[in-house]
């Protein structure tokens, strides 16, 4: 390829930009460049500046894909510039070919080639040339004389000359351009402004050798405040405007749900509007590739991961969560457009995986407009601005595999640029992992009482104002009593809401024992309320008195059963199902049965809102749990043949576990049917045992269950020993399976089964089958706690000994996968976020209610489990409150308040410039080209510039340290540490930084205007490493803490603030002792903060020979322990040094026993009577009123 030529004689960027402006305008209005002989259906679609092609000024692509290349010259005559342009044309034809239009554009063709534009056009079209036109053709042939004749003629066929005067706004061509532009504008007066916007855009692109599409030109008009007329059949810009309007209308539709909490049952209960609801929804990222488990708001996680699987148990609020997520994004500009798809509809429509296409998927969306909206987003050219929320994978039942196969094809194909969230229950989570997406667990509400109590307050508004407050107080007490008695309900939002409704409508706080009871009571309460109103004559007598409470309840079971068999269900099918029930069970004639069935469906839709019919006539359940309850109620009264068939079908589908557990609560006879099933025996016995761990089963059923557990445990053995395993080659699931072995689940199930005394010998024989001694200890402890619960007694002394033995085993470990020598004497692989043995944390929770004889040994062992209580709802509070109630003071974790933000904020508010942030580019050498689809998802720049404390660091401070010390490597390592803390992709950040570098320091704001950032976020979480991240990052942390830059050390402290690592803390102490810590105060405070035994660490710092460290220890002590709980605090209070006593907050009454005071400037000792240091001019004796000032000065 030839080099670029002709630049020396070109008119410059102004004329070239003018030509590009006209091209952009023609593209917006959909008009061809007639002077270049384009057809009416060909209009510019994209243009590029300074390409790598030989003819390089402007390259244009039309709507039909054809290409044209321009060389722009303000004046063009037969001179060196023309020869240079022709040379470039020849080079282009030789390297690219003759398929493109090659164009010389000029405001004025002069001399021999004055008539070149018309001459070339007539020559191609067979016209008669004038003498001047012949002279122009002759001049070109002479300039091409060195080429052979055939090639010369082909060049003349390809060459175009365009006389266009567009150098500035007063040029002749601008007037028709303004006229064209006015045809698509809402107001003609904006025509000149619109041209100015396009010209500004083009000038910027010309300066940076950029590209521009019609869409980008249209976006520039929108950003410039230009209003266009929307028209799907109009010019390209008008079509884009119409697509934008369609998306905006769709956003408004979804945004209307923002903050709305719909009650699970209607019963005259008002809708609740909770401000900021989406910000309270949190989730836990738990991915095998993640550095650690971290809880954050779902909004942050969605932005971070972009594509993931969201899983939660029944009634956890998945539906509310996705509706709020969609409403938030719809109400927030520059965010992805959410499309909610119900997968149960997709399963019904697609018989085979190949049936699942984008059109079929979109036809299952919540709103009919979704398909047109998707088309509009595609028309706007950025499918990355869509987020698909695929809800209810578990509801696909036996079609889960086919649906996953189809979704996998879509997510790696048409949906590869879009965001994707798949929701499911944990029962099919293993199958969902086929999508190769990270998994995220929906967290339980931090305040499970908050929304239910708001609902009680909302219901109270309909009561007389006199006595309303007392009524709310009484109902709140009743609500708390129910939740206290039923802890498994408090963490489930659906059940908590129902309990609130039941409590608000009842005069008593009837105890609730299970989820099934709560759901059934909710259904029966609605039916009873309807019966009361019907009896009182408050309802229209449309049922002639025949629609009684029992029949309504049968209708509920019938609709729910039909939905369980096949979802979605049409309104006609649901009515037909209920009518058949009425005819068979009640002997009602067909016509009457059909009328009653229609009224029943309306009742469960409009009155109760449990089975809701949408505008398309499809009946859907407000919550899948209501379907499962109906299915459980149906099978509980079914014939033995139907029951056996139901059990067989349920055991075949792993997602049916919740329905089976509900059914067992209605009829324990189902347990016998499950245990005698021919297939899926292991699943059956584990499900029955799980139910039996919380509920009582008949003795015969228990005996059969124990026998099956025994036979399974006896048959299962590890096929591979730990010593033979290459743990690094295993994924998380394989590691867990190998760690626990195939036998442990049966042993643990037997240990937790509620057995009467006569069956415990059989149960204990199963426990003895455990392969390792520590497993036997764990199982024995569980069995003893369970026995105490069954016998309704406290734990005996022997039980307590077994319990203490179990807790004395090493605590579960967390963090990056690593190997260590375990209590078994073997190298063992621990996986992030997994307890060492299943059920360890739950063992503590199970034992709390049955320990009557607390000892200090038990208290000491139980308290650490509070820090692992995130695995169990409310367990941390239960552990600590039980210990306090038993009379044992709970040692609170004394944590230092975070380093003050002023330490890292710039006094002038200036953020990083490009010179400082170039360090990010050195984090990785990987080159990444960001696509337009990443405009919203590329959020690492948020975390690394706009949101982090580091991003607000003092420009002056950093500049000074860059000059006085070589810290470029430190800065790079610090940035890498931030990337780890934020799970950010350094390569993507580097690409964005490269964009910023092109414009210099002042162009960082350009990151927003070019779309890589929508807007600086007002609130973002700080960049802080997870508590378990220390081991793999120790060397980096120690290196940064030894940096000569105070800024680097301070920023490192902020990042590692949550880490707890005794090894790291001890190494920091060694740095201080060996005088390798340039920032002594920061190193002291972070060594204390990261220590697992902070009191002991502070004591070691306070006993160092260097008096500066003793001063730092005193300041730390006064910050975290004003009451003197720590032994180190009391040690410092008794110091002979009065300064240390004052700094550590010692009582003033003991000051007279001090012997001397030390200066905090020169560290020398002074006699007590002296108030000014006798060794330096700035030191003075601190007094108690200035202690805080002295502390802050550091």
UniProtKB/TrEMBL annotation:
Gene Ontology molecular function terms on file: zinc ion binding
InterPro entries to which the protein is assigned, alphabetical: NACHT_NTPase, P-loop_NTPase, Znf_RanBP2
Domain of life: Bacteria
Domain NACHT: 306-427
Gene3D superfamilies per the UniProt record, alphabetical: P-loop containing nucleotide triphosphate hydrolases (3.40.50.300)
Entry annotated with the keyword Transcription regulation: no
Pfam families in the cross-refs: NACHT
Keyword field: Metal-binding, Zinc, Zinc-finger
Alphabetical list of SUPFAM superfamilies matching this protein: P-loop containing nucleoside triphosphate hydrolases (SSF52540)
Name under which the protein is recorded: NACHT domain-containing protein
Organism: Gordonia sputi NBRC 100414
